[in-house]
Amino acid sequence: MDPKTASTEAPGADPLGIFLEWHTAAVARGLPDPDAFALATATPDGRPSVRIVLFKGLVDGALRLVTNYESRKGEELAENAQGALVFYWSLLARQVRMEGRIERSAPSESDAYFRGRDRESQLGAWASAQSRPVESRAALLDHLEQVRARFAGKEVPRPPHWGMLRLVPERVELWLAGEHRLHDRFLYTRAGDAWQVERLSP
Ligand SMILES: Cc1cc2nc3c(=O)[nH]c(=O)nc-3n(C[C@H](O)[C@H](O)[C@H](O)COP(=O)(O)O)c2cc1C
Q: Which pTM does this prediction carry?
């Protein structure tokens, strides 16, 4: 894929399919953290916050991630379900933006994903009250040991505060770098089952 290839036409009718192709290319090229994206949420009065999280697949037209539902992002989403995200794969010179509602996945999906995690990560999900103040690293590790003792010899169940989220995109922008900053931008807006596409100025 030539990063500086300008396209005269939108890359296709299905932006999520193209997103997956680009992601696959980023993985194949060995880019660092090809799954990492910035996820923005906001309070109901419009104060935004943003952090990096990891892509856990596109299922039924929604982009999945896992997190702590009681984290700052989780609390913001409970009051304002609108979110936005951006991926940037530097060597591909491609950027993908999406906006839409973020919902909790079905508990069975979160359970299935949690079961596949290694045991230390499962214990960590219990040990960390993500986004809450913790007195010291020692206190965090102490909490981990308490959790380890509690589940010794047992399967670690999924904590109720931990699970999968799904962003259902209403808008997707595919961005391709062009020469002299004349980039290509294609904005896809959901129109029923299909997508409307328009080219934006760079
Ligand atoms: C490369 C990378 C990957 C991360 N992946 C996740 C993730 O998948 N889920 C998650 O909750 N936090 C992840 N984090 C941590 C978040 O950036 C953030 O610190 C955490 O979710 C708390 O954010 P909040 O307080 O805004 O809710 C990741 C951080 C980095 C740098």
A: 0.95
